[in-house]
Amino acid sequence: MPYNNLSTDERKEALKILYSNAVAGIAVSVLVSVALVFAFDISNENINHDKIVWFGIIMSVLTLRTIDVGLFLKTQKSNKPYNTNSYLIRFAVGCVLTAMSWCGYAIWFHSTSSTIEVTTTIAILSALAGGSANILSGSRFTAILYSFTLLAPYSFLLMLSSDHYQHILGLLGLTFAFIMIASSYKSATFTHSAIQLKNQNRELLNEMENKVEQRTEEIYRLSNTDPLTNLLNRTAFLKNANKQITDNPKDPFALLFVDLDGFKQINDSLGHKVGDKVLKEIALRISNVCNQQLYKCRWGGDEFLILATYQTQAELFEFANKVLQSIGAERKTYKYQKWVSATIGIAMYPEHGNDLNTLIRSADTAMYHQKRMAKGNINIYSDSLKLKQEREYLLSQRLASAVEENGLRLVFQPIVDSKTNKVTSFESLLRWQLDGENIFPDEFITIAEQYGLITELGLWVIDQACIQAKKFSHLQPQIAISVNVSVIQLQDPDFVTKVLKIVNTHQIEPKNLHIEITESVFAEDKLTFLTAVKALQKQGFCISIDDFGTGYSSLSSMLDIGVDIVKIDRSFIQNMDKRGLSIIHAIVQMASSLDFMVVAEGVETIEQANTLTNIGVSHLQGYYFSRPMEVDFVDAYLHGQNKLCS
Ligand code: C2E
Ligand code: CA
Ligand code: CA
Fold it and tell me: What is the 3-state secondary structure (H, E, C) of 606-632?
């Protein structure tokens, strides 16, 4: 087949060229045949009759071809698949039949034709052949066959003629036939390669379009999903949630702020790879609980946000519970023994906020407060929380400028040797007076931590404590000062350098600065904690574990860091008649083998002081000895002490 080397698309293209030119070709054939039949000698009835018969034949061929053209155009318009080969064959047959009709005309009427008629006929055939080279360039085979059929037979006939003139005409016709065959061949080859080139370009274009589409999808996926969990990322979640508000401003929904409990421990003890696996598993569990329509995202670290629609509050609670249960569910197939739980804070639209930022902040606040009260539960944002949040925000604003406004000061509580009652150190405790009101440290320290103020504030405390320590040391050499340091301060990579600079400025020996760190930091970020503690100890600072017994520290953790001082939480001292005593006993024994000093906090009575001294607690602190005192009283206190102890 002449088209075997063309693809279907290329054949379609060739067909398009052939059929679109066919109309012109057919029209020319009609015009010329009318002229031929009716323009020459119509007085001869015989000839006239034969010509009419011929006219009937060619008209039938041309009509069939016109129908074929119509059919093709219709098929093409309908975009339905069609057999290109059958159209090509039909077209070729139509053309060859037309050519045969023309050739037939010439041969049929040759014997009765005048010289003018013969000349005209050969000229017309040559003209038709000439035109076909372009018109039929869509099919090389058809074009060549058409030219050949048109010219060759009649030219042969003329060449055989005894008439010299006709002989010459035949020779010319045959020569022209070969020229036309060559020209058709060339023109068809050109069209053929043009079609192939066009097709290749289209393939290239399609390929490029596909690639662009793939890339666009990839970019969309990358910019919208969290790579680790495949949930939405922050940006995409915000976009979708904002759309929910603008598209359906009247539909209520809830935002669930899900924060994992104990995830840091997993990260620290089992490594980040395991941590990542856990996050992936949690994301999967969350996705399994949420139906497809809900937006869920990884908000950051171990925090997830879910946007949930609901009918009743009971339904919402049920859903939140399902999320909690699925996150906390132990699976036999899951090999990590320590599993996490989660705390959820919920804010509802529109009750708790009209915009997304407020809602997220409210859900976060609800979660945060729940975490402080009891982890692993659900908390819905409320008006009292709102008031609390507003107060916290206000206090945070004022706290930021409290140092400049001279609203902050330190008070000092002595820590005494249990045997001699001599002061060995002072714990510095921060006080804040705001517009005449004393704000409790338990409240403002948390705010400072939450609003990112603690790092600066903590350094100010250390600086002030060192200034005072320098003064106290004039009254009692080698007296130490202890400062409370929040775990957030330890996260500052320059913390140790900064503290070192402060003690150097005030010429305080590092061993006389005791750094009190709350025990709960063991649970939060063990690695940061250990690194900072090691660095501080390397510089000679004393590390003291505050509120011991209330948090998570274990014997192995103590061995790990080799702390210098352990401060037993006052709840044990206040419950000494119950379990407290045996625990204190155990700590004292641990102290002698692990070589750390023990301070009992919150000693309020002489009985407590005596019992603790008898068990072997080396240092005591509490209201019994002194409440935290203003700096101006420290002088007098130390003088009195010195008198007592001398
Ligand atoms: P803390 O480090 O455990 O401090 C001891 C707290 O116990 C102090 O409360 C002190 O006044 C109180 N206290 C001492 N003796 C007794 C006693 O015999 N009975 C009773 N009931 N209480 C006693 P304060 O000053 O209200 O401080 C509360 C907490 O605020 C501190 O607990 C500490 O965690 C934090 N804090 C205070 N100042 C700072 C600071 O400068 N930086 C940081 N990060 N935290 C601080
Ligand atoms: Ca303390
Ligand atoms: Ca304490």
Answer: HHHHHHHHHHCCCEEECCCCCCCEEHH
